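Weekly modeling sync, notes
Attendees: S.R. (lead), two postdocs, one rotation student

Agenda item 3: backlog of single-chain predictions. S.R. asked that every request posted to the team notebook include the full sequence so nobody has to chase files. The rotation student volunteered to paste the first one in as an example of the format we agreed on. Action items at the bottom.

Example entry:
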Amino acid sequence: LYLTFLIGLMAGSPQAALYSIPLKLTETFEILLRSIVSVAMPKLSYFSVNNENNKVKEMFQNLSGTLTFIYLPIMICCFFLSDYLILLLGGKTFLNSSEIFKIFCVYGLILPLDRFTGITLDCINKPKYNFYKVSIMILVNVTLDLIVLYFNLPLKYVALVTFLTTLTGCYIGIKYLNKTFKTSIKEIFISGMQYSKRLRYKPIP
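Predicted structure, as returned to the notebook:
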């Protein structure tokens, strides 16, 4: 919301409207993520309260890694169908915003990891680290957005800022989680792949 206001203030209402269409499409990426997060939080908190950090780590890596693999084909499809999706939602007038949505599709791939680093920090009773993480992300986002808009760069660079901000959040989140248990991007992806295979071949009772 602040971003469309900022774009409208510095670049004009037409630019804000142009940005809002791919932004609305991007919000659909979070539907599945919100559902999984609401289920995962109580379990992560339970493991943390019982000092079962190995289970916290396992669940964090399994879910964030698996959701990344689930999002991968979805984001690829959205990337290549971006023109049609923009046309469907906004019409020919907003077709130029297709490039913005393509960048958001790449952003969608790291969204699960960013979200799960944040909620896991909260669940292991480290909310101050999550606060630091979010604060740094806001600082990076606002600073880079102001630079992009001040120099009147194309709106796709505003979307790129969103991606870079989320990437920063992933890095900082993992760094703070390593104070409680050791994890890495490589471990997360391996765990996600293995967990996905177990789900795939799990027999139906």
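Discussion: group reviewed the output briefly. The mean pLDDT is 91.
Action items: rotation student to repeat for the remaining queue; S.R. to check formatting next week.
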